[in-house]
Backbone:
């Protein structure tokens, strides 16, 4: 069971590949890690050092993996922060190569664009790239509410509107859309929620909101949802397991008073979360 994970890398903290690779390994997946940036820390600190990798270098690294003759073993490609349209094109070329070698492989696209509090934190042209090129190729899409609204081209301030926006994206190609932060009118301020939608239905899971703004939680969520979807093929089961795992990691982070996600400390909870939450069918 192998996953090609193409996203950012930081030396300090838990975002991008630093938030995705270990949880996937802990759940039993072999991960082929390809980094798109090499930063000292995530940009939320306001200052960082490092560089965005040249698209040609990323392409060569992926080509080297292909030359090992292993792409036929890939079950999925996972993508996160890209930083440029040129890197996006390298990513989609990799998805095509993996699917040619492994036709049943899934592409899970976390369309990292921004969030409601900060707006866009990538180049604006990436929104068009995701909408026109990446979404139609994706099997699983994991936007937050801001990204959902951006890609669907519609507001999603209510449950019905969020489901309509997810359905708009499903009509463009994906098999499943996971809205990773469903802050809509029907969800109380003390509650966090996720919505998983497929053509066959939609499922909502609610968890208590913890007192922490967790950078990397979206990257962790996308990785866990992909892992559980690969295991079960069931979006409802996958969103339930994902919510339990993410909540456990954030709870451990709060307990330790840590500034970054305490993924290693909470590793046993990734597969055996101490608390589970009900999954409600909403469509």
Residues:
């Amino acid at each position: 069971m192998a996953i090609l994970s193409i996203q950012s890398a930081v030396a300090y903290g838990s975002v991008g590949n630093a938030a995705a690779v270990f949880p996937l390994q802990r759940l039993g997946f072999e991960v082929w890690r390809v980094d798109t940036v090499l930063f000292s820390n995530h940009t939320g600190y306001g200052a960082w050092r490092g560089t965005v990798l040249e698209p040609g270098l990323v392409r060569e690294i992926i080509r080297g993996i292909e030359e090992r003759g292993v792409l036929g073993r890939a079950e999925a490609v996972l993508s996160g922060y890209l930083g440029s349209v040129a890197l996006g094109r390298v990513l989609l070329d990799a998805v095509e190569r993996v699917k040619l070698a492994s036709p049943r492989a899934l592409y899970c696209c976390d369309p990292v664009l921004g969030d409601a509090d900060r707006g866009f934190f990538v180049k604006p042209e990436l929104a068009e790239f995701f909408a026109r090129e990446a979404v139609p190729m994706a099997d699983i899409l994991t936007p937050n509410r801001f990204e959902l609204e951006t890609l669907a081209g519609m507001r999603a301030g209510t449950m019905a509107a969020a489901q309509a926006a997810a359905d708009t994206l499903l009509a463009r190609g994906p098999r499943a859309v996971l809205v990773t932060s469903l802050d809509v009118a029907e969800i109380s301020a003390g509650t966090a929620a996720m919505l998983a939608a497929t053509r066959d239905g939609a499922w909502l899971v609610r968890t208590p909101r913890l007192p922490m703004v967790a950078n990397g939680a979206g990257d962790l969520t996308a990785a866990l949802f992909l892992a559980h979807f690969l295991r079960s093929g069931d979006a409802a089961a996958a969103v339930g397991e994902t919510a339990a795992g993410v909540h456990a990691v954030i709870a451990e982070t709060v307990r330790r008073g840590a500034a970054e996600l305490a993924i290693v400390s909470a590793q046993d909870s990734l597969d055996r979360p101490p608390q589970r939450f009900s999954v409600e069918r909403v469509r």
User: Anything to note?
Assistant: Residues 2-281 form a domain with the UDP-N-acetylmuramoyl-L-alanine:D-glutamate ligase fold (CATH 3.40.1190.20).
